[in-house]
Design a protein that fits this description.
- The protein is α+β, with helices and mostly antiparallel strands.
- The protein has 3 domains: 80-398, Glycosidases (TIM Barrel); 416-421 and 572-595 and 602-700, Galactose-binding domain-like (Jelly Rolls, Sandwich), CATH 2.60.120; 443-557, Jelly Rolls (Sandwich), CATH 2.60.120.
- The protein contains 14 helices and 33 strands.
- The strands form 7 sheets. It has an 8-stranded parallel beta barrel, surrounded by 5 helices. Strands 30-29-32-27-14-33-28-31 form an 8-stranded antiparallel sheet, covered by helices on one side. A 6-stranded antiparallel sheet has the order 15-26-16-22-19-20.
- Strand 10, helix 10 and strand 11 form a beta-alpha-beta unit.
- Helix 6 runs parallel beside helix 7 (228-242) and helix 10 (321-332) runs parallel beside helix 11 (386-397).
- The longest helix is centred in the N-terminal third of the chain and has 27 residues, at 2-28.
Amino acid sequence: MARRSRTKTTLFFLLISLIAFLAFVPVFAPLPSFSSHHSLSHRHRHRHQHRKVVTSTVAVKPRSFEIDDDKFWKDGEPFRIIGGDLHYFRVLPQAFFYLFIFSKALGLNTIQTYVPWNLHEPQPGKLVFEGIADLVSFLKLCHKLDMLVMLRPGPYICGEWDLGGFPAWLLAIEPPLKLRSSDSAYLRLVDNWWGILLPKVTPLLYNNGGPIIMVQIENEFGSYGDDKAYLHHLVELARGHLGDDIILYTTDGGERENLEKGTIRGDAVFSTVDFTTGSDPWPIFKLQKEFNAPGKSPPLSSEFYTGWLTHWGEKNAKTDADFTASALEQILSRNGSVVLYMVHGGTNFGFYNGANTGVNESDYKPDITSYDYDAPISESGDVKNAKFNALRRVIGLHTTASLPSVPSDNGKMGYGPIQLQKTAFLFDLLDNINPADVVESENPLSMESVGQMFGFLLYISEYTPKDDKSVLLIPEVHDRAQVFTLCHSKENSRRPTHVGSIDRWSSKTLGLPNAKCASNISLFILVENQGHVNYGPYIFDKKGILSSVFLDGRILHGWKMIPIPFHNLNEAPKINAIIQVALSRSITVSTQTELKDKSGNVSEVPAFFTGHFFIENADQIQDTFISFSGWGKGIAVVNDFNIGRYWPSYGPQCNLYVPAPILRHGENVLVILELDFPNPELVIHSVGHQDFTCGSRIAAAFIAPAAFAIIATPPTNIALKATAGFTAISDGNCKIHLCEKIKKLSHSKK
């Protein structure tokens, strides 16, 4: 009996071991792909057949993400998408981890992101996939943290991003491309771009073991055009690279006209919708079903707006937390799926902000540097706010598992006042420009035509002075032109004198002062690209002087164009040459005194100002903000990183966000290019908070006569998709090399 008992015990442990073995083997077994085009019943049969052979073969659970019975199915189980847009190109890679953790604490299971073509191919054939363009690391970390991904590779993305993600060099191609169309020349470039991008993400598709469950075709195309051949081409191109299993989807505004033009009927592409927050979602979801195959239309708002964008000159857009949460409840309460746009907005670092237009292309509204969007996770990653809490509460009511705890906000630090020195006038740096970079033409050329995709371009010509005042007319300038003149024959001639500005959205004429000059007068026009239009019919938005220039009614010929080489975030060299020259210039107190006029004000701009601040201990390195209160308009660079544009005189944004990874232990260097007017004290402050209250104090300047207004007349408001809640330093004498440089540029023969 004792022997028989031992036999039973042995059999018992063998059985337990076999069960344990069968339980763990599938974890290590290869995961086969599973077609998203199988029916639900076929899926069940397939799984049943798998069970029949368990006795002889290890069961492997298929890894799949599909649509059937008007539901999403993940690995054969019903699934609801509760996602959020978070753009890898608007944050530093060091922030990916904690932003995903905050997103999970909010209750999200999916991250949606655009892929901006211009970030990854800033110049034809020059590809960038590292640093702020590190898409693959972003996707892999999503996977590691068990977050699914909805990928939006464009080629057009909108997103309040420069030119809607298109590289600006597309605008220089002749004959002109027809963007967002079946134009064969345009499609060849798209084919080449997707032929680079899509193979990089194919291993990260869900069926291949990665996080990507859906890939979007174009973006809100129904609001732009109705070129079905274009959409079909993109679908065929995507399928060729990604295969048949991945779900392709479109996003369009929830109106019949938009869906008619922007969707592809049948089951090849899943049609999703977006709409104004607060609209009744369910009639729109019902309409969505008409544009999907039967059983293939789970209700999904692929852009649920948690806030809204803000343009320069507007009040900062905000939406009520409880109102937004109530609108979300309407979707989730009936098992709808949703993607929060945005869960975290981030920052338009560098020159990458977009712009909108209104009734015409002169009705131009550039976006501010911050893309905070009034999202539940703020620009600097804070979550201790009413909107995060309200949305989390609603999401928690509609998820079976308890939500992760909410981590603490990241620390912020104000490093105090930063005393600046003027280190160079912009025009003093012309001698550092390579003559080979100077472009000559009978008439002005666009920025893109001379290879300047962002920032500034200086136009130089000359004219013969007359006794009466001359009138300068530039019918079309994109976007902001500062006009300067210089009489070379005057003994006290130092550098070009600022005359005034001509803006895209305001007056196109400017009176040039009566000047008694024995020589011709040089005319300098510094044009700033304030951001390519990213949405609407005027997206083919070239920059610079786009028309003839008239002086007293006659066309002014003979132009030289000098690119001002501020490199963008992803362009080499990583250190801006012109910034380094500005840094190398020094200034003494006595020189500063000589540069003051009789009223005691610091003399004219544009000029570079440099300051230094110190972080004594490594553990004091935290996020900070640079406050530009009292300054005019310009760009700022911290430790060789372009943190963006500032314009507090216009508002509403006062401060620029500086993420901690940009800072370093010890000395930190701030360089700014001030275009309009510096703070008289030449002081900037590092503070521990964002501020969107600038601009209102100078409202009276907007209605001042053009000849006296400090600030250009602001553009009128434009119609939006949804309701808004809502200006080496030389000494006092002209440096010989500078004067000679300007004279050569002005008088040299073509």
